Amino acid sequence: MTAGTGQIVLVNPRATYVNEIAQKCYPPLNLLYLAANLRKNGFDVDVIDANALRMSDEELAERLSAEKPFVFGLSFYSEILQQLRDLTRLAKRCVPGVQVVAGGPHANAVPETTLAQFESIDALILGEAEESFVSYCRTLRDGGDLRQVPGIVLREGEGLYYGPEPTRPDLSKLPLPARDLVRKAYDLKRYHSLLVRQRPVDTIMTSRGCPGVCGFCYSMNRHYRGRSAEDVVHELTSIRERGIRNVEIVDDTFTANRRRAMEVFDLIVREKLDISFRIKSRVNMINEEFVRKAKAAGVYLVSYGMESGSQRILDAMRKGTKVEQNAQACLLTKKHGIAAHSGWVFGYPGETLDTIEETVNFILKIKPTTVNTAFLRPYPNTEAYHIARDQGMLRGDWTPENADFPWVQLPWIKSREEVQALLKKIMRKVYFRPYYVWSIGSDIVRNANWTMLAYAMQEGRRVLFRAR
Questions:
Q1: Residue 142: CB atoms within 10 Å
Q2: What is the CATH number of the domain that holds 361?
Q3: Domain count, the chain
Q4: CA distances, 149 to each of 136, 137, 378 (Å)
Q5: Phi-psi region of 291 (alpha: psi -120 to 50; beta: other; left: phi over 0)
Q6: Do the domain assignments include residue 185?
Q7: Domain annotation covers residue 309
Q8: Is the per-residue pLDDT at 468 higher than 90?
Q9: How far apart are CA 431 and CA 422, in angstroms?
Q10: Which of 89, 152, 245, 263 counts the highest number of beta carbons within 10 A?
């Protein structure tokens, strides 16, 4: 063992918006799965949710100095590279000799760049890491050969060494997430969803992988598989027994196997769980029967990545959906009294002012219950990133030294400020329509949801007075 007490510490870093009113704050389910499997294999492990607890680096340093772990693990996300650099350095400073290990979307997308930019990282673990991370910790503890750990990436001379291909864990055999390790955040009711007044809320994973090939997404897992309905409802029952009645199913696409999803709904109804849900779906994967069963099971919101109201842009994104399916999904969901949340991405390569106007007019026509608009972020190693880079449109890049996110400068755009101004214009045109003002206002009053009121005021000020 190289350092510390034999404990493993996993940290969920702060989000970029940690000091603002957030749409939601959820348990770090990925880390809780890792922790559960580590404990199952005899390791002492702690999970620190610095995001939910809003911990400063100084507070985290005190915790690490006290616990003295021999392994410090982080999930890497592109938006918080500066913070991740600081945290990896902090770990090395507080616990000399600690092994710093990273995984997550950014590390999987660009392992070479990650190790080149973060001198404090000792190893990467790629893929779904529940089993390979146990192998890494056991090998490190016992003085074995780390090169044999599945999914590992190590520095080797001037290059990198890639270990054996990792296997995907059997979801039915994984222990349930170690939620007790973040009990303080639950007790403080830090886990929340903006549309739900009651706290805390919880999350559950019922499947992994997404069959989609969207050009803007850097999902590391295209191989879809799901847990059985019985297994899912067993976990939901344990959540319900803790007094929690609102859950988000965080699968990338809960409806990828629609029959399995409906089996989950049927069993929820049969067991009378009395829990409310929000789920994610592609617009082409629902029908009347599905939405009816979803409503009966307690689904109150379906989140759709509609992305664009222009078929040409949807095709460029390789979304695999039709504009008409966006409209039909919205209509069908609202018909059954379920909120239809919609996400829209502007600025994909090929976008023009005409296609943006087409999308805005489409949003105003179909009236989704809630709308989230954003300009494209060219995440590393995605199709959108490569197109923008190869066509000379990529501005900036993903580095811990760059405080601003990279962006795509389309031929008709002059500056980042122009992008920000255009997004504000889109948001004003959508959000300040009487339909949305009345809808959101009514929901706030009906549910006495004063956090949502504060959020609406925060976002209103942002749109009216400041660049986003």
A1: 8
A2: 3.20.20.70
A3: 3
A4: 6, 10, 31
A5: alpha
A6: no
A7: yes
A8: no
A9: 14
A10: 152
